[in-house]
Design goal:
This protein is of the alpha/beta class. It has two domains: 189 residues, Ribosomal Protein S5, domain 2; 229 residues, P-loop containing nucleotide triphosphate hydrolases (Rossmann fold). 35% of the residues lie in helices and 17% in strands. It has 21 helices and 19 strands. Strand 1 and strand 2 form a beta hairpin. The radius of gyration is 28 Å and the shape is elongated. The relative contact order is 0.10.
Length: 514
């Protein structure tokens, strides 16, 4: 048989779209042609595949005209994931393995010159793409053959049937022609679909002494899914609080853990130790807009997508490039990011919680009781002006983190533990989910009026506060959603004056004078 078909998948954003690797052998001048909108890494597969087949002791049909087509032709293909399916297609077209036995399998893997299989990124996205169409249907799923490491990731999807191979020969022995029984291969193993059962480990909030106002703000943010800005002097504990925020969030569901792991796999960051651990991404303030939101060719996920279902911590917020910060405005609202390029368009999830920290002024000590600020009013105004109004308007909670005196810091008892605070947060989230099916932060439009019902006194208080402070419509809605979260933490069915009053305190303007 001079024509063979092998199935694989190409990554476009978080999608893993089917690709059919067609291999044709014909008489004529010896050549090896690869077509189908292949990137440079894919075109280099010709040399890797040739060497791998020969060094594995198999016959490479070098006297034939070899044509490999990666269909569909308009779908971009990148990386070395097509090495294994191309090699199997050549072996099937030359009769060395049975092409019919390849049906029902999908392959991906990079080949070394000696025939060893190397891991590829995005294997979890491939496994999810195979399993999702079959939910609720009895159809037979394709079996997935991957290198070691990649196979462990793919097997996290419960419905997937995943096989691990270490070498090209491990795969070839399973598809020998005719009625030949597959030879035993040490590297060929079916990987069990089981996720690690260990509990995620997070830093304990008990390590933070004092800072009652900041701890309360963290609790509200975690309970309602709200974004938070902490303003305080250097060393007051802002970073320490932010690093413990992920531990306050409820445990991840299986679907959330799979989404997070799939994005991390695309970026080459996933390990089994990170399974079901809510990510905390803390990019340096020199990060560009592309580093934060994603981009490149082919498009890659940025920090906001790698923080999906977790925390994005931006320390020294005013020091980030303005373009990078402005790029966060849309994802904060929508929970996803769409990256458009001339040749392709990719969408990545970005439902993260923003925790930001900043100093109140360039020297950092404006309003401090421990040290005097040496900045002029113009310098303070210029520093705070690096943050645009629309961005600050999208941050639900603003809290001041005061510096503790030395004796207060040394003698203060340990704070309340993460476990104790998380128990209250989980109860509040459960109330919101039972009432509306989503977190309070995600409420939009008429759902805000329906779910954030206020008693008359609370409504009057909010109207007066919004008028005096000159809030936008977005600001009013965000304050109301924070008040709804505060009411959930208190176990109240309606939003009352005390809840609104506390929410108003979290939307105060920054200090602008000595």
């Amino acid at each position: 048989m001079s024509l063979s078909l092998v199935h694989s998948r190409a990554l476009l954003g978080l999608e893993a779209r089917p690709v059919c690797v067609e291999v044709h052998l014909a008489n004529g001048l010896p050549s090896f042609t690869l077509v189908g909108l292949a990137d440079t890494e894919v075109k280099e597969a010709r040399e890797r595949v040739r060497s791998a087949i020969q060094n594995a002791g198999l016959d490479f049909p070098g006297n034939k005209r070899i044509t490999v087509n990666l269909a569909p032709a308009d779908l971009p293909k990148d990386s070395g994931r097509f090495d294994l399916p191309i090699a199997l297609g050549i072996l099937a077209a030359s009769g060395q393995i049975d092409a019919r036995k390849l049906a029902g399998y999908e392959f991906a893997g990079e080949l070394s010159l000696g025939g060893d299989l190397r891991p590829v990124r995005g294997s979890l996205a491939m496994s999810l793409a195979i399993a999702r169409p079959a939910r609720g249907t009895p159809q037979k799923l394709p079996r997935l053959v991957l290198p070691e490491g990649s196979a462990q990731e793919a097997a996290l999807v419960p419905q997937a049937e995943v096989y691990r191979a270490l070498h090209l020969l491990d795969v070839v022995r399973q598809f020998l022609p005719g009625d030949a029984v597959p030879e035993i291969a040490d590297g060929w193993t079916r990987v069990a679909s089981s996720a690690p059962s260990r509990q995620p480990a997070y830093a304990d909030l008990a390590d933070v002494k004092g800072q009652a106002a900041a701890r309360r703000a963290l609790e509200i943010a975690a309970a309602g899914g709200h974004s938070l800005l902490m303003v305080g002097a250097p060393g007051s504990g802002k970073s320490m609080l932010a690093q413990r925020f992920a531990g306050l969030l409820p445990a991840m569901t299986t679907d959330e853990a799979l989404e997070t792991a799939a994005v991390a796999s695309l970026g080459g960051r996933f390990t089994l130790d990170h399974w079901a651990v809510r990510p905390t991404c803390a990019p340096h303030h020199t990060a560009s807009a592309v580093a934060l939101v994603g981009g490149g060719s082919p498009p890659q996920p940025g920090e906001i997508s790698l923080a999906h279902r977790g925390v994005l911590f931006l320390d020294e917020l005013p020091e980030f490039p303005r373009a990078a910060l402005e790029a966060l405005r849309e994802p904060l609202e929508s929970g996803h990011i769409t990256i458009s390029r001339a040749a392709q368009r990719a969408e990545f999830p970005a439902r993260f919680q923003l925790i930001a920290a900043m100093n109140p002024c360039p020297c950092g000590y404006l309003g401090s009781s421990l040290r005097a600020c040496r900045c002029s009013p113009e310098a303070v105004s210029r520093y705070q002006g690096k943050l645009s109004g629309p961005l600050l308007d999208r941050i639900d909670l603003h809290v001041e983190v005061g510096s503790l005196a030395a004796d207060e810091l040394v003698n203060a008892p340990p704070g309340e533990s993460t476990e104790a605070v998380r128990s209250r947060i989980v109860q509040a989230r459960n109330r919101a989910m039972a009432r509306q099916g989503i977190a309070n932060q995600a409420l939009e439009g008429q759902a805000i009026d329906a779910q954030c019902q206020m008693d008359p006194a609370a409504a009057k208080f909010l109207n007066v506060a919004a008028t005096r402070l000159g809030w936008s419509g977005r600001g009013i809605h965000r304050c109301l959603k924070v008040a709804r979260t505060i009411a959930d933490l208190a176990g109240a069915t309606t939003v009352q004056v005390t809840h609104v009053a506390e929410a108003v305190q979290y939307r105060r303007a920054l200090k602008t004078a000595h």
